[in-house]
TrEMBL record:
This is Ribonuclease HII. The gene is rnhB. Endonuclease that specifically degrades the RNA of RNA-DNA hybrids. Pfam families: RNase_HII. Its EC number is 3.1.26.4.
Amino acid sequence: MLHEETGLWEKGYSRIAGVDEVGRGCLFGDVVAAAVIMPQGLILEGVDDSKKLSEKKREELYDVIMKEAIAVGIGTIDVKTIDEINIKQASRLAMKLAVEQLDPAPDFLLVDAEQVDLDIRQMAIIHGDATSQSIAAASIIAKVTRDRMCREWDKLHPEYGIAKHKGYATRQHREMLIEYGPTPLHRKLFIRNVMVMQQELF
């Protein structure tokens, strides 16, 4: 998990930030990105792609990462902006905002399968959250942050089950959309086809 970081440290980079986002494929809510700079050589046991970890383990690792990290940045982009600029651009903007929050600033970025629109040397890694500790740490911070947001959104719209499915297009979520219609936190472009397809089933 430190292969890429080790190579960069050997080249003289000292503040390597892992960058990842979560919520890109959801029908509901903000997209959230995180950027994390970990100390050189530090190995975090258990850190992995956030999707492979239990909620309890993610919460535990979130606390460890926040304690050990040199810097952490979080960027969120709301539903209105997602609908205006599309989810790909919104995800990239969230990543940019997350990186811009880092203090000290990074000298290299490891990004999960994306490019950050900043003049900082960077590398996009396919499935980076499963192969780079820095990106995995960012994925955990982003996931826990958004899951906590989902629990708050669930209080506003309890009938949709957001705390359970986190806004993804589960069967329950699709059926609730048909029954109750979309909320202001639903992504209009995302739900249009889902609602048409769901209605065709009835």
